[in-house]
Design goal:
single chain, mainly beta, Immunoglobulin-like, 8-stranded antiparallel β-sheet
Length: 289
Amino acid sequence: MSAIGYMPTAPAAIAPGQLITAKVGLNLPAGTASLLPLPLSINGTSAILYGEAGLDVGQTFNLPLLSVSVDFVYIGRIISWNLATVTVQIPYEIKPASATNYGLYELGVASDSNPSAIIRMVAQADAIHILRTGDSIETPVYGLHPVIGPFPPVITHVNGTTVTMDHPTRPGETVLMWAVGLGAPSSGTVKTGEANPSPALTTTVNIDFDFRSNAGPSMPSATDTGGSRVPAKQVTAYFAPGFVGLYQINVTIPAPPVPLEPCGGIYQSNLTINIGGSASFDGAGICVE
């Protein structure tokens, strides 16, 4: 079984340079990359991206690997299986889908002793994801045990401490957001699997601010000027030097346009910062005092 529900199964979205985690039903030896540039194999496990349709049809890209882990998934008393978690970087060279390009790819994961597992994907200019504590990029899942509480976003004060309910931000403060999937740089180049250079390469994203309690992510809007939202503006996103596929976005918190409900109890956030590109968006809720 590959999917269930009432909507057609769609390929997963990927962007140039994106870090993604694939979960496959293979018994793979665990390991983590220890040096840069990232290796193309970890303990015999490798991953490839194959052009299925579009301008890259027939082309094969060997993917740099960050880590491989295996979780023993147990359901009920007798049903269990191994679930491998493989984190890779998508090549910067892929070509996003457009009116003249299908942009379809297949991701294959295999090892010396296992057959390949195939996942279909579609390339787009960006596939934005704000990092959160507990992300599979940071921490593998353990079986199918639920995690208590929300995954707080990785948004930090300038001193490096995380913005939390107990350590909120304030209007006028600049906080640092960390994300993946923002796509290729606007100028300059970085090689797939290698650390971002210094001085930092850049791209641009749109950001707006939604001062509602527990507001979900939405595409930033420059025309929504009423109520709880501060209209979108374009800001610079930096390719974090020394890291692979990681972006840093410096955001200054504006004055709230409406009175705020304090964080606490059922209110996990009273500001959602939305980040949008040409093809995707994500948002992260934090607390402002």
